[in-house]
Each structure stands twice: as structure tokens, then as C-alpha cells.
Design goal:
alpha/beta, GMP Synthetase, Chain A, domain 3, 2 domains, 3-stranded mixed β-sheet, 7 strands, globular
Length: 248
């Protein structure tokens, strides 16, 4: 299937929007194809505010209307227990809310940015997509992440080289209960590092109160040079702070 064929069959679509590479290209392509399209962003404890702000900017650049809503994913005990398939329960909750919002606006087709590289065997959330009847036109069209980045660059989208992002819950080992306080620590620690000029980073919890900083290898020297500043900030949240020397 070609992407244009999907848009010919579906002239009114809602897009589950994160502001990342894939959903941004899907939103752009739908808009360029003349579809009546609206983006929907669901804010939970697992998405930092910076991701929401970027999503708002990207939707505005594309010229597509955006609806922002919030849910408390920690209301679901299956999410807070943080099992290996936590993403399935979280995604199910988010998609149900997305469908409610989209249908209230008159959209019967909900799409997401899953691409042809995404593998269901290591992405439990993809099962939720099937169960909730979400369309994945990029994947159906055989578009890989590399192809989407290339097409995004051709289209002039600033997301073409945006690093892949995983939600804050992925920073916490499976089986470690998720709490607002713990997620907040991770978010604040990462925000502090971004404010220092670092990028494409992760701060992972090493239970019970340690943190492992993951940075691209070309930022290690900068981290070493700013060791005292990093420790001064991150010690507000963690007793031990370590730098992961494995290349990301």
C-alpha cells in the first residue's frame, strides 16, 4: 500500500501525536494530501513537559489543529506495578481516551506513527493498537524509520533528525513500583542536564537511590569537565550518580 492510497480512502483522520519523527511526518503527509486532520496529544506523568511543548510547536509549524488532554496513568495498578508489559496497559488507557476525544470531534479513523521497523515482539504497546482498532499507515506503507527521516528532511520538517524518545517509565527497572515522586525525580534530573547543554540523554534509576546517566559518547568529555556541577544538581535526587560508558 502507498501512503497516498490510505489518504484517498480516509479523508478525515485523527493522529495520535507525540511530536516525534514518525507522527510528525504522518501529520504533515495527511495535511499535504488535503485530509481533514487533527492531532491529539495525551499528557501523562510519563511525558515530560518539554515533549508536550515540542509537540505544540511542531503541530503549529505543520498547520494542523492540536488537542491536548491529560490522564493519570498511575490510576491503573497494572501500570504502577511496572511489569514487563506495562506499556500495554498504559497504551490501552491512552488510546481509549484518544478515541473518545477523536470521536467527539467526528473522527472515526485514528492513526498512529508506528513504522515498518517497529517490532511487536519487543513493543507490548503495539498489541493495544490492534485491540483499539488504530491504523498505522506508515507501517502499512512499508516506511522504515530511515525512510521517514529522509522524507521528513525533504519536506523541511525540523523533526527529521530528532533523537528517538522513550517515556520516563522506561528509566525505571521492571518490577520497581512507579510513583509520582520517583518519576518526578527522573524528569527533574534530565531537565537539569538538558539545561546544562547535554542532549539525547537518559537518567536511569539504579535502585534504591542511584542514577546512571547515559549520554552520546561525544558528550562524555563535557560531562567529565562538568562533574562537580552535575553532582551538585543530581545529588538533590539521588545518593549515587554514575556515567554509563557504553556508547548509546
Amino acid at each position: 500500500m502507498q501512503l497516498r492510497d490510505f489518504f484517498k480512502r480516509n479523508q478525515r483522520i485523527a493522529v495520535a501525536f507525540s511530536g516525534g519523527v514518525d507522527s510528525s511526518y504522518l501529520l504533515f503527509a495527511a495535511k499535504a494530501a488535503g485530509c481533514d486532520v487533527r492531532a491529539y496529544f495525551i499528557k501523562s506523568q510519563f511525558q515530560p513537559t518539554v515533549e508536550l511543548n515540542e509537540a505544540i510547536r511542531h503541530a503549529a509549524r505543520i498547520g494542523a489543529p492540536l488537542t491536548v488532554d491529560a490522564i493519570n496513568v498511575l490510576d491503573d495498578p497494572e501500570v504502577t506495578k511496572n511489569p514487563p508489559d506495562r506499556c500495554y496497559y498504559c497504551k490501552t488507557m491512552m488510546l481509549k481516551r484518544l478515541k473518545e476525544l477523536a470521536q467527539a470531534d467526528g473522527f472515526d479513523v485514528l492513526c498512529d506513527g508506528t513504522n515498518a521497523d517497529d517490532d511487536e515482539s519487543d513493543r507490548p504497546g503495539m498489541r493495544a493498537l490492534r485491540e483499539q482498532g488504530v491504523e498505522s499507515p506508515l507501517s502499512d506503507a512499508g516506511l522504515t524509520k530511515e525512510a521517514i527521516r529522509h522524507l521528513s528532511k525533504e519536506a523541511g520538517l525540523p523533526t527529521h533528525d530528532k533523537p528517538s524518545y522513550a517515556c520516563l517509565a522506561t528509566r525505571i527497572p521492571e518490577g520497581t513500583p512507579l510513583t509520582v515522586r520517583l518519576i518526578g525525580k527522573i524528569e527533574k534530573a534530565e531537565e537539569a542536564l538538558y539545561d546544562m547543554g547535554f542532549s539525547d540523554l537518559r537518567v536511569r534509576l539504579i535502585p534504591p537511590r542511584g542514577a546512571l546517566i547515559q549520554l552520546p559518547d561525544d558528550q562524555w568529555d563535557t560531562a567529565a569537565a562538568n562533574r562537580a556541577e552535575i553532582l551538585a544538581v543530581l545529588h538533590l535526587y539521588f545518593d549515587r550518580v554514575m556515567l554509563d560508558l557504553i556508547t548509546r
